[in-house]
């Protein structure tokens, strides 16, 4: 029982972190990209369901006591499940950036030894240092 509980808690934490990541990015951050994604939603929809309605009219049929059977197609409201495609805007960090809190931070594949990463794979070196990773003095 404890193992199952831990499993559900972990699933909940993963789901929470996924939801947080899609909701927490600052839309004013120039390094946030967004796109429209589609998803399916199950909906209950109404429709006009045809059925054969039997009714009687007066007629000259003496064997049926002057009653004749007639048919007409009538409609009644029925319900069915259907899939509806919905769209939502998804925010994510642009290529070359990773998420940190509310912002997208540039990613340098090589660590900036004496400097800081200012855009993807671009280090801004401290004075007196150079090279692509700021390791040359």
TrEMBL record:
Task: State if Repeat is listed as a keyword.
Answer: yes
Which Pfam families does its entry note?
EGF_PEAR1L, EMI
Which keywords has UniProt assigned to this entry? Cell membrane, Disulfide bond, EGF-like domain, Glycoprotein, Membrane, Repeat, Signal, Transmembrane, Transmembrane helix
In the UniProt record, does the keyword Cell cycle occur? Answer: no
Identify the PROSITE patterns for this entry: EGF_1, EGF_2, EMI
In terms of domain of life, where is this protein from? Eukaryota
Q: Where in the cell is it found?
A: Cell membrane; Membrane
Q: Which residues form the signal peptide?
A: 1-24
Where is this protein chiefly located? Answer: membrane
Q: Which residues form a coiled coil?
A: none
- Report how it sits in the membrane: Single-pass membrane protein
**Ranges of residues in domain EMI:** 29-106
Instruction: Mention any one GO cellular component term assigned to this protein in its UniProt record.
Output: plasma membrane
The protein in question is named Multiple epidermal growth factor-like domains protein 11
Q: Which organism is it from?
A: Nestor notabilis
